[in-house]
Write a structure and sequence with these properties.
Layout: H1 2-21, H2 25-33, H3 48-55, H4 57-81, H5 96-118, H6 131-141, H7 143-160, H8 163-182, H9 185-201, H10 203-211
Helix pairs in contact: 1-4, 1-5, 2-4, 3-4, 4-5, 4-6, 5-6, 5-9, 6-7, 7-8, 8-9
Length: 223
């Protein structure tokens, strides 16, 4: 009976996380403030980058904050359901076994939140690429890893002027850093899964990068 209760808890977490992930803030903000669906503009992607190019940095920042916070809320709810210590949402446990367990909780909720973001129930299953949602999860998984990935992201954009390339590189480096910090095969495999989701979502960007036709920040477009 106890195992069934645990299974039910995880099912609830998966459903709630997916529903939260389906709250795509680029679509919500563009429809509410501009009376237009962001998916009908620019690249057609429902994400912060397209919001930046189409409506400007303020919209992009609001989108990013919203998409990060929804993951944080999903993780908070997961911790409440699993009776996990809430202080471990923002902290890293001293005990390695406990730290790994807390990360697994966060990544479980984060995974379904990212799925909701990419395939939102409320918006005909056509959402963003999951970068902002993954970012929110990584920040709560380990702030040290998040900081290193942020530096990689900033340097990549400064050099290449391509947000997509920065997103792809931090996805690649995430499982590498998980391996460096935790040496846990389960965490590494899950990190590879997250990286694969982001990379697959950017497959068209990768083609354009290789062809030299990818959009750059310097190529500003009018609203």
């Amino acid at each position: 009976r106890q195992q069934k209760m645990i299974a039910v808890k995880y099912i609830f977490i998966a459903i709630i996380s997916y529903f939260l992930g389906s709250l795509n803030f680029s679509i919500i903000l563009s429809r509410t403030l501009e009376k237009k669906d962001i998916r009908e503009s620019g690249s057609g992607n429902a994400g912060a980058t397209n919001m930046l190019r189409t409506y400007g940095k303020h919209f992009a920042v609001l989108t990013m904050i919203g998409d990060i916070l929804k993951v944080a809320l999903a993780i908070l709810i997961a911790f409440l359901i699993l009776n996990a210590p809430l202080d471990m949402i923002f902290n890293i446990a001293d005990n390695k076994e406990t730290a790994v367990t807390m990360i697994l909780y966060k990544e479980f909720a984060g995974f379904f939140c990212v799925l909701g973001h990419i395939f939102p129930l409320y918006f005909n299953f056509k959402g963003g690429k999951g970068v902002a949602a993954c970012t929110g999860m990584v920040i709560l998984v380990d702030w040290r890893i998040a900081l290193i990935l942020f530096v990689i992201f900033v340097i990549t954009i400064a050099v290449s002027k391509m947000i997509s390339l920065g997103s792809i590189l931090i996805a690649i480096f995430y499982p590498v850093l998980i391996a460096v910090f935790y040496q846990n095969i389960i965490l590494i495999l899950i990190a590879v899964l997250f990286a694969s989701i982001v990379i697959v979502a950017h497959r068209q960007n990768i083609k354009r990068i290789l062809n030299g036709t990818e959009n750059k920040l310097s190529n500003k477009k009018n609203k």
